[in-house]
Amino acid sequence: LDADNYETDPCLKEIRRAENYSWMDIITIHKDKLPNYEEKIKTFYEEHLHLDDEIRYILDGSGYFDVRDKDDKWIRISMEKGDMITLPAGIYHRFTLDENNYVKAMRLFVGEPVWTAYNRPADDFPARKQYMKFLAEEA
């Protein structure tokens, strides 16, 4: 995606329309830009899941999303300017900055945002059970 022109990018507009991403905001994760920076960084890195998909579009900077594979091993996904990721509801994950200690990202949601993170273990949620069922069907 064209992160330099995200406000007018027709590809982003089409993704938002097709996926019904009706709500968005922009977060800058940097010690000089994010209130309670140290606390937030620790929270983002704590292994957790959400009950809704997590959609992030990197507008500037870089970082890593770590997700668990079907064998519960970590997979590190490098994210940089122009990348978009959708983490399905129920997947355990975490986020960390790289050595640049800076990322600016668009957060997208279907409907109103839900910010609740459920730290592991959170296996009894229907979203987790549905995700595990999906993994079993794919195997």
UniProtKB/TrEMBL annotation:
GO terms for biological process, alphabetical: L-methionine salvage from methylthioadenosine
Compartment(s): Cell membrane; Nucleus
Keyword Cell membrane: no
GO cellular component terms given for this protein: nucleus; plasma membrane
PANTHER family: ACIREDUCTONE DIOXYGENASE
EC category name: oxidoreductase
Cofactor: Ni(2+); Fe(2+)
Gene: Adi1
Keywords: Amino-acid biosynthesis, Cytoplasm, Dioxygenase, Iron, Metal-binding, Methionine biosynthesis, Nickel, Nucleus, Oxidoreductase
Domain of life: Eukaryota
Protein name stated in the entry: acireductone dioxygenase (Fe(2+)-requiring)
GO molecular function: acireductone dioxygenase [iron(II)-requiring] activity; metal ion binding
